[in-house]
């Protein structure tokens, strides 16, 4: 072995040993850019709540496990910040915290969690003065959400049905598919009672939302006829029940997807996010509901954006958060929709969610092209949004590629939008390899915030001197109802042609080497990846397909959302056009594939069954000599949630692109973790 090769090998070993130190924030050189291991250690703010007095903000910080030590999901800790202070105080760090809320009238924060000794998730409370969090409500099954009444004593909560099946008489019990499923129920209790008992709300089906009305006189309930995922997506109904949960007073006249709902301060109305109709792919339209008769009125129906969140700020006014293209806006709107104003306009950090106190104090969770989600405070007097937290201080020492919004025009003159991250060492006049990253849904969109994750290469790609392109093709959200529906009945058609048109624009602009274009995505983005690797194989030199669709016929028969597929995507039954559905499937073109394809899938995926990946793998493997690899993740579903599985995914994705887009030798051990282990042992 030559001296230079020995030096390179020793340097690789040294880097592997140093990775744990780098992950803690001591980055060796800014020129390196963001690494997969650093992505695996990113933290972010998730939930927020502002105190009724407006002087404090509670929030959770999500921290991932070290992927080299534990393969488990991220956990969240509770922090509290006095908004007049520069410091945050950790309140609960030993319990995985979720569903935080300020308890009315009590000067405390409540949350859901489970200590090591607990068998089920329960409701905890901690005083704003600090001290130990104490469990204030237990239940035979996990509590999944809750809502306080104004008095801070009456509580409605959701939990799985407590009924149990009889014990089997044989040593083996088969599982009957989609039968004997457990409904989620709503329960009411008064925590001020010494021996408080929980009584079940008497509505049929599976309950997914329950919200107290003013003065705890009524409850708004959202329930689906069964606990099937398809019913959750497509067939939830809103109803108003009495305070005892025993009588349905009003049923809301609406069909289609349903989002959040909230009472007006005077109790005469509800506001809700929902689809415009049964064919709207996303619950992003704002509706006002009469509490008296359930009549529904959609307001600002022509809004070319997507309402993401709202809160009542008066009897006839709401504040809203909306997506508009790749940006976010925060504003106010009257209950009849006649006046809609912007308070925080597009162009700043991307606002993900908000909470507002009665005195007008507003806090946000927001991210930016340069950092994941953090806590922000809106200052009305200065008309500014101030960042309060820095969960990844080490990120300031990492060089990041430039990120910008881009647009292009499809062959039919449709104007599309997306985002582009530049190579870290970009030099004008040079051409670079490209990774095209396709979102799922397709009822989703990329926003101009932090868009790097374990499966979205983003800044990991920039660090390896790739352009990374995020197209919002037709059918994406954030541009109104008409645009969101514009891909329906044409799966794999113009929607994916939009992506190719965007790639062509980058090639024409002299930025991208046309022989070094890659594609990746998960779910519907995985479908796009399979399509590009087969139907458009002459255009793409490498693909990484995640939990993707390869056969639209068998996908329908093996998915847990067949009705959603029909109602908001295909708009036609597969048995009405088997040939058409087959011809919009990657397997149909697999015999011509020359695109090296890495296929990855969670073994427990019920949304897109792993058989979809088996099918495409087998077709390419049998019908071509094109490189193809299938990687399965035990215990993972429709996307990886555990730390090691996520990190492993990032390593494999980048290694595949480096091999087939940049020509780097793939002589590494099967996983980066194994490489580290061997290097340390050496």
Characterise this structure.
- The N terminus and C terminus are likely disordered.
- This protein is of the alpha+beta class and 682 residues long.
- The protein is built from 13 helices and 36 strands.
Summarize the structure.
With 682 residues, the protein is an alpha+beta fold. It has 13 helices and 36 strands.
Label this structure with key terms.
4-stranded antiparallel sheet, disordered N terminus, 8-stranded mixed sheet, alpha+beta, 13 helices, disordered C terminus
Shape: globular
Number of strands: 36
In the sheet with the most strands, the strands line up as: 29-30-32-31-33-34-35-36
Which regions are unreliable across 5 or more consecutive residues at pLDDT < 50? 1-28, 674-682
What is the oligomeric state here?
single chain
The proportion of residues in beta strands is 25-35%
Largest sheet: 8 strands, mixed
The tally of helices reads 13
On the 0 to 100 scale, the average pLDDT is: 93
The class by helix and strand makeup works out as alpha+beta
Report Rg: 26 Å
User: Ends: how far apart?
Assistant: 17 Å
Helix share bin: 10-25%
List strands and helices in order, with pairings.
Elements: H1 3-23, H2 36-39, E1 44-50, E2 56-63, E3 75-82, E4 88-92, E5 98-103, E6 108-113, E7 122-127, E8 130-137, E9 143-148, E10 154-160, E11 184-190, E12 199-200, E13 206-212, E14 218-224, H3 229-234, E15 237-242, E16 248-251, E17 258-263, E18 269-274, E19 285-290, E20 296-298, E21 306-314, E22 317-324, E23 327-334, E24 340-344, E25 350-356, E26 362-368, E27 371-379, E28 384-387, E29 403-409, E30 415-421, E31 432-438, H4 458-463, E32 467-472, H5 481-485, H6 494-508, E33 512-522, H7 524-534, E34 542-546, H8 552-558, H9 562-570, H10 578-583, E35 597-602, H11 611-623, E36 628-633, H12 643-662, H13 672-681
Parallel strand pairs: 31-32, 31-33, 33-34, 34-35, 35-36
Antiparallel strand pairs: 1-2, 2-3, 3-4, 5-6, 6-7, 7-8, 9-10, 10-11, 11-12, 13-14, 14-15, 15-16, 17-18, 18-19, 19-20, 21-22, 22-23, 23-24, 25-26, 26-27, 27-28, 29-30, 30-32
Helix pairs in contact: 1-13
